[in-house]
Specification:
The structure is a homodimer. Chain A is of the alpha+beta class and about 110 residues long. Helix content of chain A is about 60%, strand content about 15%. Chain A has one domain: Winged helix-like DNA-binding domain superfamily/Winged helix DNA-binding domain (Arc Repressor Mutant, subunit A), CATH 1.10.10. Chain A has helices at about 5-25, 30-40, 50-60, 85-110, and strands spanning about 25-30, 65-70, 75-80. The first copy, chain A, has a 3-stranded antiparallel β-sheet with strand order 1-3-2. In chain A, a hairpin with a 5-residue loop joins strand 2 (about 65-70) and strand 3. In chain A, helix 1 crosses helix 4. Chain A binds a DNA duplex (30 and 30 nucleotides) through helix 1, helix 2, helix 3 and strand 3.
DNA sequence: ATCCTATACCTTGTTGCGTTATGTACATGG
DNA sequence: CCATGTACATAACGCAACAAGGTATAGGAT
């Protein structure tokens, strides 16, 4: 039903999406998978094999920070929070996204599509 | 001066950008490099080593069609035009872009950034 | 004459990253 | 007892941007 988003756009949106979600408070991988699907109305369906490496890179680069937590049910979760570096990166990513969207809209306009 | 756009976003935008430009009429590689820089206010600065392979892929996949032309000055140019397949792909890419932008804005809203 | 810049195209090696598949482990419902 | 959901992780594969290099012509500056 919902048209799937093409590969490169998944790659381009993963970092700003994760950082944006964490800007709203702590979260963990599995929850973010659901969150993204919800936010996109089902069109963005991340695989876990894609998300976890993303989270590891963001943590390695100091944009997010993780801590292990045990639930009452005995399940382990890795909660992540946004760091100051992450906040700055999010600002830059939002600016980039706006720049590209503006440029694309300009091209769409000139072509009167 | 203009903040550069990050790598993955370049990748994600190259196809819809090229298709959009060609939706406005024929063009060639070198001209598109200038056009993109103009449309983005200088923020999107494609390298030729990135664009030409993109054009070759799009032509291979039948989304654009090229023809060689000689200018009066004796320079060779490869002019490209949008095919019907390319038009359909452009529609899908625009839809994907809108979907992601909406999802990101939803995330930004929830985080009241 | 020589050099630099602009025009105009192309390709190769390196690196990064999504996808697919697989693995581990616990909890719950049928 | 077994499938599904929760929750994380990694490895092989393929694709694509980036940096750097190459070919070629034209015009202006030194």
């Amino acid at each position: 039903m919902a048209a799937p988003v093409y590969r490169e756009l998944i790659a381009a949106s993963s970092r700003p999406m994760v950082l944006s979600i964490l800007a709203g408070g702590e979260s963990y991988g599995y929850q973010m998978l659901k969150q993204v699907k919800l936010l996109s109305g089902g069109s963005v369906d991340w695989s876990d094999g894609m998300l976890y490496p993303v989270l590891h890179r963001l943590e390695r680069d100091g944009l997010i920070a993780g801590r292990w937590q045990l639930t009452d049910a005995g399940r382990r979760r890795k909660y992540y929070r946004l760091t100051d570096r992450g906040k700055r990166q999010l600002s830059r990513d939002r600016a980039s996204w706006r720049t590209l969207t503006t440029a694309l809209e300009a091209a769409w306009g000139e072509a009167h599509v």
